[in-house]
Design brief:
Blueprint: E1 6-11, E2 23-30, E3 33-35, H1 40-58, H2 61-68, H3 78-90, H4 100-114, H5 124-129, H6 137-150, H7 159-167, E4 234-237, E5 244-249, E6 255-260
Antiparallel strand pairs: 1-2, 2-3, 4-5, 5-6
Length: about 280
């Protein structure tokens, strides 16, 4: 009788810190079929439950709104979404843990692994953390590391593995989120047109002229209404609880930042900036 290869994986409980010793579990591979604490029939049933729980999470209205703000599928294409489910399974999340929070943590980690550009994935912060997201980024990244530890630090997912995940529900709309070629491939430099991210739930995603997205929203492909890009000379975004941030191009060279109070309801666009000379100081001052 031939010996069975035994692989060791590490699982961390919710309350356990990544710096503490992990709990060791064993997984035995029998003839190519994974066996873990029960028969293959039970395992397949449990995996089916996980797939259905994940797809139900994608149907949530808040998640749908988030996905609709990524019409070019730069941070949530079909492969990144498939990676999220793989991460859930590797971390042995309970079905009750298939939540918004877990999805955003896993999606951010998937972007860490696969994407070259740092800016687009920051769009996840305001959706995951709310209006005071900038004060909670450190906590979010710590929770990402805890999820990574629960996975045994196995964050690499092959394309074949993603396609096997999709094959379990091959006609689901999530797998129609194909990224277009001009958004693919290795990108080693930042885009020439700066876009201030994250924009957050309050604004439409920037218009992408290469994609030529239609001005309508489809439930299956989630192509939302998008607005044209503001001018390069002045662009601002407004999270609901923060001041307006406006980056203005200086005619004499260089950029500077203007912070406007939230009472000023300005739309993104081009504005003329006049600088008045400073009045002379009064005698004695």
């Amino acid at each position: 009788m031939s010996t069975c290869p035994i692989s060791i994986s590490y699982e961390m409980s919710d309350s356990q810190d990544p710096t503490t010793s992990p709990v060791v579990t064993t997984q035995v591979d029998l003839g190519g079929c994974s066996w873990q604490g029960g028969g293959n029939g039970f395992l397949r049933f449990h995996q089916h439950q996980e797939v259905q729980a994940f797809l139900s999470l994608l149907e949530d209205s808040f998640v749908q709104e988030f996905l609709s703000k990524d019409p070019c599928f730069q941070i949530s294409d079909k492969y990144l979404l498939a990676m999220v489910l793989v991460y859930f399974q590797r971390a042995h999340l309970k079905l009750s843990e298939y939540t918004h929070s877990s999805l955003f943590l896993a999606l951010y980690l998937a972007n860490d692994m696969e994407e070259d550009l740092e800016g687009p994935k920051c769009e996840i912060f305001p959706w995951a953390l709310g209006k005071d997201w900038c004060l909670q980024v450190g906590t979010f990244l710590h929770q990402r590391d805890k999820l990574w530890a629960r996975m045994g630090f196995r964050a690499v997912v092959s394309r074949q593995c993603c396609e096997e995940v999709m094959a379990k529900e091959p006609f689901h709309w999530a797998w129609t989120r194909d990224r277009r070629p001009h958004h693919g491939g290795v990108q080693r430099v930042c885009p020439q047109v700066p876009v201030h991210l994250p924009r957050g739930p309050g604004l439409s995603p920037p218009h992408c002229s290469p994609c030529g997205l239609p001005q309508h929203c489809s439930r299956h492909q989630l192509k939302p209404v998008s607005s044209k890009c503001p001018s390069l000379t002045s662009e601002c975004h407004c999270p609901s609880s923060q001041n307006y941030l406006s980056r203005v191009k200086n005619a004499w060279g260089g950029d500077f930042l203007i912070v406007l109070p939230p009472e000023m309801q300005l739309e993104p666009g081009t504005y003329s900036l006049r600088i008045f000379p400073k009045p002379p100081a009064r005698p004695g001052h």
